[in-house]
Design a protein that fits this description.
Structural class: mainly alpha
Number of strands: 0
Helix content: 55-70%
Strand content: under 5%
CATH superfamily of the largest domain: RNA polymerase sigma factor, region 2, helix turn helix motif
CATH class of the largest domain: Mainly Alpha
CATH architecture of the largest domain: Orthogonal Bundle
Order of helices and strands: HHHHHHHHH
CATH topology of the largest domain: Rna Polymerase Sigma Factor, Chain: A
Distance between the termini: 72 Å
Largest sheet: none
Shape: globular
Amino acid sequence: MVAHDSAWAGRLALCAGNRPAMSVEETDEILMRRIAEGDEHAFRRLADRHLDRILQLARKLLGSAAAAEDVAQEALLRIWLNAAGWRPEKSRLTTWIYTITYRLCLDRLRSRRTQPLDEAFELADPGPGAFDALALAEERRRLAVALAALQPRQRAAVTLFYYEELSGPDAAAVLGLSLRAFWSLLHRARASIQQQISPSLTKAPTS
C-alpha cells in the first residue's frame, strides 16, 4: 500500500496527463470498492470525475482559489483513507464527498475571521457589449460580497442548493440538518443576500 500522506494524494489526483477513458461499468460504487482495496488507478479515475465539484464548492465557501486547492487535496486524501467506510445504501457518493468538503471548509472558516473574495466567483467572458458586461460584472461582484458576508452554514446552503444544484434533502444531509431546518436556513440566507443587494426592497411597507 502506498504511504498515506497528503502530498502523495495531491500529486496522484491533481497531476496532469493522458488517462484511459472510463469504462461504462466503472460506476462510483465499483471505483470506491477498488479504492478501498488500495487501487491507485481507480482513485485517479474517481478524482477525475469529482475533483471539479470539490474545487467549485470549496471556492464558493472559502473565497480563495488557493485555499480551495488545499481543501481539495485534503478531501481527496480523506476519500482515499476512508473509502471502505462509505456505504452506498446510506448516502450517494456525491453527498458524502460534499459533506467531507463542507466540513473541511467549515474548519478553515472557523479558524479565521475574514475571507478574501479572490477568485471565488469567476466571471465568464462578457463578449460584446461593454455596458452590459460592466453591469453583469457589478451584479456578480455584489452577489459575491453578499454571499461572503453570510454565516458559513448559510453560505453553504445557498452554494449547495443554487450553485451545485443539490436537492433540498441532499443539501440538508450534507449540512447535517432536517429538511425543515434546511429550508429555514436557506430562507434566512436568501433574505440576507437580498437585503444586502437591494436594501430598499426589504424594508417593511408603511401604511
